[in-house]
Amino acid sequence: MRKNYSNISAFNKKNLIKTINLLNKKNVVGLPTETVYGVGGSAYSKNSVEKIFKLKQRPKSNPLIIHYYNINDAMDDVFINKNFLKLYKKFCPGPITFILKKKINSKIHPLSSAKLPTIAVRFPKHKIIRSVLKKLNFPLAMPSANKSTKVSPVSAKDVFDEFNKKIPLIIDGGISKVGIESTVIDLTSYPKILRPGRIHQNLIEQILKFRLRKNTSGKILRSPGMMKKHYSPGIPVLINQKKHDGKSAFIYMGYKYKNKKKFFSLSENYNLDEAASNLYKTFRLIRNKGYKKIQISKIPNIGTGIAINDRIQRASVS
Ligand code: TXA
Ligand code: MG
Q1: Which of 98, 175, 232, 258 is the most exposed place for a label (fewest CB within 10 A)?
Q2: What distance in Å separates the CA atoms of residue 269 and residue 46, rounded to the nearest whole number?
Q3: In the chain, what percentage of residues exceed pLDDT 90?
Q4: Between helices 13-24 and 127-135, what is the axis angle to 10°?
Q5: Do the beta carbons of residue 133 and residue 80 sit within 8 Å?
Q6: How many angstroms does the Cα of residue 143 sit away from the middle of ligand 2?
Q7: Ligand 1 pocket list (CB less than 6 A)
Q8: pLDDT at residue 223 tops 70
């Protein structure tokens, strides 16, 4: 069946105005960022935030990330600190989210941050989301534009596949370059990474000039509401696979099985950033081809590989 993508629009002046009008009227819009696509609404509005939770079928205990144009805007809502300033200067705008203490007079609707005394603050880099944020008088609560526990979207069509016509507008900003969600780092006390991402521990340590706490258990400290099962492509995923079973889609690094059916390389030259950017795209491609199962070979657990392993590990929880 051919799909009618009529709520997907190109980015131009007219559609920027349409986006701003919808957001001002407490509606939600599908928007591109450099990490993944989000579904955004006013973080000040109960109505908008409720729409987002409902659309995603997301538990109310799982707080949303609040997106800002710059640090000045964020200072209305959170207390900043030295570690934040160092990381902000180096990485923002960019694919990193900071957990900071909420100011008592902040207008962020409590529902957006699951009534926590903290707020997740992000300054996305994609030029479309930046031009939207610049024109708004409020920050955007914006989770990834997928149903809860499913794979995040990296294109406008992916967003459509999640929500169809349930959102009035999806702005097409091309493929998300980073391809996995932002790094989430808690800066309310001794810094700790809650969700690994493209801006990985080593890069952060180089800027802060001290070591982050080791995750000796090998487990990532979880954000509240961060479920064990997540990023699920809807078919079983097996990780650390050595041998192809002959039927499943097989995801690997390198070029050993180039042009072989059923084999999908995340990066032919073993680049982990490229692999991350191809991960969700490959999950969706495999599912759309009708495979019943995904096998994934071992991915090096260094740099961005840590984020890939986090995602595929949770995708494999049945
Ligand atoms: O790259 C991204 O961050 C994308 C794009 C759209 O910006 N957004 C995204 O949002 O991934 P979402 O809602 O899918 O993930 C938000 C994560 C969750 O794991 C949540 O638990 C955590 O951020 N989080 C939000 N507020 C928090 C808080 N106050 N304390 C700790 N974790 C928080
Ligand atoms: Mg998400």
Answers
A1: 258
A2: 47
A3: 93
A4: 50
A5: no
A6: 6
A7: 33, 35-36, 38, 62-65, 97, 99, 113, 116, 118-120, 122, 124, 142-144, 181-182, 184, 194-195, 223-226
A8: no
